[in-house]
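Board notes (copied after class):
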Amino acid sequence: MTQHSIIPASLAITSMRDSGYKTAAHAIAELIDNSIQATADTVQLICIDKSSTSGQRRIKYVDQIAIFDNGKGMSPETLQQALQFGGGSNRDDPSGIGKFGMGLPSATISQCRRLEVYSWQSGKCFYTYLDLDEIETGKLKTVPGAVAKNIPAMWSEAIGEDYDSDKGTIIIWSDLDRVSWKTSKSLYIHSEKLIGRMYRHFINRKQVVVRFKSFVNDVVLKQDTNKLFQVNDPLFLYKKTILPELPGDYKNESFFEQVGEPHTITINLKDGTTGEVILKYSRVVKTIHQAIARNSSSSMGATPYGKLAEENNGISIVRSGRELKITKEIYTSLDTRDRWFGIEISFTPELDELFGVTFDKQDVVNFERINLDLEAENEGYDTNDKTQIQEFKDKFEKEKSNRYWIHHIIVQIDKNITELKKHTSTLAKDDSPQKSGEENKEKGLSHAEKIAKKVADERKNNQKQTDSEREFNNPNIPPEEKEGKLAIALEGDGIDKEEAESIAKILIKNDCNVKFIEQSLKGNAFFDIAREAGSIIVQLNNNHEFYKVFEQLDDDKKELIKLVLIAWAQCEDDSNASTRSEMEDIRSQWGKMMKNYLYELNN
């Protein structure tokens, strides 16, 4: 009788691939965890590029990715076990950074189809591999036994000065079918901030050095990049980080200052588990904030300091010295000044269950704001009866369940946020230096919008304005009236009232009728155009697959995309009604087609 597997290998592998890591950088972080667990003090992320010809251009693309470490290496038995899902030896060390034992195989298959590992101890090197093609066809049913095999010369050459024949491991990914960043440059750009933030404590105390290398392997191996990952500290307490050098006499100072001493909360769980949670807070040094503002030609939020503070804004959750995530879910604020303080929660692996740490170490699913009224209602208490509510709260306090401890931690954070906001509320409300003349006039316009204004000004000088531009520049309507009408019209287009008023103020103040915004839109269009009171609002749909690509671009590329879409909008605006309608249909069809293609790229 033919035997059938309960779960076919091909289906199981597909499911595992789909439940994987957010980005290649998150998957790489899993491998770095293993390196640190193996007592490595040097880790290299190595990209091997190939080049191909496309038309008249020669382009490079990532062909292989490797992680090397100079840790203690693995025996043949441990090496084979490391490639088994859930079989890693790190599970035997529950206090370690990589205890879940899923990292190497699960991180790998989330990004590529073939994994090769060389590991050596005392000069003896062993090799094994996983190949999804072989697993799916049934050719490979168990992890191949580790065999004696020397590391290929190309890889020892790439490792270079850090190669030690006595100990080490290199993990090689090839057939990179799910790595969204196609060049080594983009891989570095997108992984630098994340890896520098995840491992900031290890890097800062010089426990580990993480180096990025890229090579072109056409005829011979040629090095292209060799850089160290720098610390990215969301609390901005460390010096010599990814942050640009601070101005003047502050260049050797910390951007933020620590607020009080770290607050330790001792947790005693009902199952007997004991652990500690440490809360740390920081806030911007006002004199440094003021110095940057004085020396900047743009608002504080638009400076590299402001942009990085916004990216790192939230609560940093750290486990065993390694950041799991930054969460913005515990508190939200529309006040941009809240970027100027930092919060860190750190805990040891004994409290993994309390926080709900996922096996891929990308989330803490139990760390959420707890509504005591809702908790009481779920347990059958009458929330309209004050006596019953108090009875529930007394029981909640006495029993000290896991939910109690999460609530207790967040209550402590809330108290400190109140104090932190008192500090940042004394900063300039718009987070910008006081400017005069043209500098102040152009506040609020992106580079692409400034170019659009320049082109529009040239059309005006040459008496070739579009109908919208003539309406916008009508001298018979006072600026205040224009601003009010525009704000009302934009709000009618579904733009939030506060944002509509802000856009109207910026456009009227700058004599510019074009604005680019990111907006949640329905339908297939990846961008839409609102034409109101002579203004043209280009709305990028943040629900579209294209937005995943857009948000990963650096600022220069984002401005280029904005300019391209603004040019389309101007062309559409300058068309007659029939042509404009056809262009709107094309936009919708284009967005639908792009969505299908980009889904494959992003997923």
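Comment from the instructor: The two ends are 39 Å apart (CA to CA). The chain has a mean pLDDT of 88.
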